[in-house]
Amino acid sequence: MSIAVTGTRTRPPESDVDVGRVLAPLMLGALAYGVLGSVVVPVLPLLQRDLHTSENGVTWLLTAYFLAAAAATAVIGRLGDMFGKRRMLLLVLAVMAAGGLVCAVSNSLAPEIAGRAMQGLAGGLFPLAFGIIRDEFPHERVAAGIGAVTAMIGVGAVGIILPGLILPYLNWHWLFWIPMLITLIAAVGTLILVRESPVRPGGRVNWLNAALMVIGVTAVVLGISEGGHWGWAAGRTLGVIIGGVAVCGIWIAAETLGSRPLINMSLMRLRGVWTTNVVALLFGAGMYGAFAVYPIFAQLPPVAGFGYHAGILACGLYCLPMSIPTIIVSPYAGRLAARIGATTALTIGTLITAAGFGYMAVWSAHPYDMMISLGLMGLGFGVAFPTLMTVIVHSVPVANVAETTGMNTVVRMLGGAIGTQVTAALIAGHRRDGLLTPAGFTASYLTLAAFMVVAALAAFAVRTRRSA
Hints:
Elements: E1 4-5, H1 19-38, H2 44-50, H3 55-58, H4 60-83, H5 85-105, H6 109-121, H7 125-136, H8 139-156, H9 162-166, H10 174-193, E2 203-204, H11 207-230, H12 235-257, H13 271-298, H14 312-319, H15 323-329, H16 333-340, H17 342-362, H18 367-393, H19 401-428, E3 431-432, E4 435-436, H20 438-459
């Protein structure tokens, strides 16, 4: 079954675009999504108790989020190209708000997981927002616009301190009410201030190919996410991962050979696309893996003999330096790339992030060590990620921006699932007398640093115009 979409309009004069008014709701939506991505991390033990579940059960609040984001982002980006980016952005924001409502009113695990999956589906707002910026903004403002939206991921990461500020006065349900209200404001702003993108090529949705992609990606991420619990050599783990890879292979073949592909696989042959996807995979592994390991280290109890024995608020404050450099640097990453070249800027950003992880592997005795480490990570992310997105949008035709950035986001989420599970396995695999040992955390930091060093090597292969 296919749905035809026809009709395009010419791009409006760039002087007609009020950049600030268009950018504001896009940034608000990205802020809400960023908060939802980090807000549950420091309260997983609390949610485990209140939802009457196990450690494995409560981690599904993160796993469902990543699975939904990885599986849906490329589809949403493609639908934005076909049916209108503004229209799809409004739908995405509505689903994210509905997911927040489900989580805010639920008191059991299953609906909480469902709500988190709905929130994860909203990962598609980034390729949609980047597409709107590319379509509507003057050429010289595109990089800054992408940087401003990207910076909201860093701002949203302050959601990690939100539980420490709210829980002394309100219950944990407010951790979802607040982002839901921000999302609704972003939706109203989008409805009023953002006009439909005039760049909308005709096309068709191949629902069979969409189903193959969703099933394949979900199976792969599920196997990676549950490998530590099921056993990496267990038949269930290997079966799910191998089956998912096989379905993904069928999907890629169908996309390549079919006349109505969901994702234009020929674009993935472009150097500026496949190289940035490799970097995104490794960057996602490092970034999301850090979210899993740093809060655990900070909140270790005194009986562990190491760590900081921090409460929820202190843990959030220790993680805050990750956000500040990202907020400051991201809007200027495009200028840096224009001055020194996108390849150089991307390489520098990944190496700075690697240095942050390496620092924590060597020095971790005091909370300020963690703050320095995460500050370097945030600085590197602030340079590398906007440059990554800018390279992509300048490497493909305007009509393919949303689908290409969507695929890059899928790859980054897959990397996040890998990094999270690898660090969790390293930490859990180093115990003495039932207690965690420092060796597991040191191995995790070194592994995260290694991800970023390999990403820097991959960045050397990215060759694009200096003006990108």
